[in-house]
Specification:
Strand content: 15-25%
CATH architecture of one domain: Alpha-Beta Complex
Order of helices and strands: HEHEEEEHEEHHHEEHEH
Number of strands: 10
CATH superfamily of one domain: Spore Coat Polysaccharide Biosynthesis Protein SpsA, Chain A
Structural class: alpha/beta
CATH class of one domain: Alpha Beta
Helix content: 25-40%
CATH topology of one domain: Spore Coat Polysaccharide Biosynthesis Protein SpsA, Chain A
Largest sheet: 7 strands, mixed
Shape: globular
Radius of gyration: 19 Å
Distance between the termini: 35 Å
């Protein structure tokens, strides 16, 4: 690693530059591993930014995909900090953008990503409990997205949830290109990235069957069985021994609170904690 000139740089700037150097070095190693393994048409992409999810969430997602996908695939993580990730995970350095949280997500549609073929993007707070081959084979060549989980309260709800999206490389690049030109305007006007995705692609998407991916909080637990005293950010559900995913369900979404590491349902312990 070349010596870093620290003249006139703040501690934060130095930290960012050092992290970028580490990520570039890791990316080269991972790209060599990818070349040795061979390119595949099926790609899994996750995004890790900031401190909300540690490297264990990425590593567990890789292991869940390996367990529940029989098709050959490449696994990519888009991140500004690749420390602690398994060597089988291909790193894509996340560019520095003046946005927060989920607003990094439009970058997954960039035509500049070093990925070819079909991309299945999965949020890190999802738990895979059964076969996910169908997410690659369903309606091939179509852009597919979830119907938002508000559907649990409003059956005719049409808006999208961006936690599970499949698309071809370049198929949605205008989503990123417009966001790149007007990030301040878009982030002030809309609540989140999935509102932007719905606005940009309404009428173009094929919806996944609702039963394939369910909300743990609203559709598995039906927003019931909170322990007394649970508050937002520290929400706790009673443990239920018989709680499990319906037969058609392959992925459980832990949107909001709690996250998978705080869930003690046996089928989540088997598919997330113990993996």
């Amino acid at each position: 690693m070349a010596k870093l000139d620290k003249t006139n740089l703040t501690k934060t700037q130095i930290k960012i530059l050092l992290q970028e150097k580490r990520n570039k070095k890791l990316a080269k190693t991972h790209q060599k591993n990818l070349k040795d393994k061979g390119p595949f048409a099926n790609n899994i992409l996750v995004l890790k930014h900031g401190k909300k999810y540690g490297p264990e969430y990425v590593n567990k997602m890789y292991k869940m995909v390996s367990k529940h996908c029989t098709l050959p695939f490449n696994f990519y993580c888009l991140t500004e900090n690749a420390d602690g990730l398994e060597k089988e995970i291909n790193i894509i350095p996340l560019p520095i953008m003046n946005v927060e949280g989920w607003w990094y997500k439009p970058y997954i549609y960039s035509k500049d990503l070093p990925i070819e073929g079909t991309i299945l993007y999965i949020d890190l707070d999802m738990v895979i409990v059964d076969d996910i081959d169908k997410f690659f084979t369903y309606e091939p060549n179509r852009y597919c997205v979830l119907r938002d989980f508000t559907r649990a309260m409003r059956p005719k709800w049409e808006k999208y949830n961006s936690s599970l999206v499949r698309f071809k490389k370049g198929q949605l690049d205008d989503v990123w290109e417009e966001f790149k030109r007007n990030p301040d305007v878009i982030t002030r006007r809309l609540f989140g990235d999935q509102d932007y995705l719905f606005e940009k692609t309404r009428g173009q998407a094929t919806l996944w069957p609702d039963s394939w991916c369910l909300s743990w909080k609203w559709e598995i637990r039906q927003n019931k069985m909170f322990k007394a005293g649970g508050t937002k950010g520290n929400r706790v559900f009673d443990k239920i021994e018989h709680c499990e995913a319906p037969p058609a369900c392959s992925i459980i979404a832990f949107h909001g609170d709690p996250n998978p590491h705080r869930c003690e349902d046996p089928f989540i312990i088997d598919n997330w904690h113990k993996i």
